[in-house]
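S.,

Sequence below, as promised.
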Amino acid sequence: MDWTGNAECPSIDVEETRVKAQEPEAEALSAEQYAALAEFRYRLRRFLAFSETAAARAGIPPQQHQALLALAGHADRTPPTVGLLAEQLLIAPHSAAELVARMVEGGLLTKVRSAQDRRRSELALTPRAEAVLRTLTAAHLEELRGLAPALLGALGPAAS
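The prediction came back faster than expected:
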């Protein structure tokens, strides 16, 4: 379990990884597998660079774009909270609270106390945020459509 309490995000035991890497019986990887993984990571970095540039052009920092997407994509019936945002962005809760404060101040989010639990703050996108996110999401989906064949092509050799 990681610091957010999320059991789905495995932590890496650095010492265990170091020991396994030194074992002579470790399965040899082919040059094709290294090349495929390098290509896959390159394509991911290019997509992330695209995403950061697109967010900046839309007038918001990349982390705020990620936050808007995480909140809009929250499929649970309960309203999203600062804690959920921290978990989704893999940041500390106090960092998520600061991010939310900046986004409320910037007119991207509303934050209200939960009627059921006054300790919790429920978050919602403003109409401005929805419009920005809609534009960014359309651009990202178009970029992913072009990138998908290269990512899938790199995944095949990397996974075998």
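Strands lie at 109-113, 121-125.

Coffee later?
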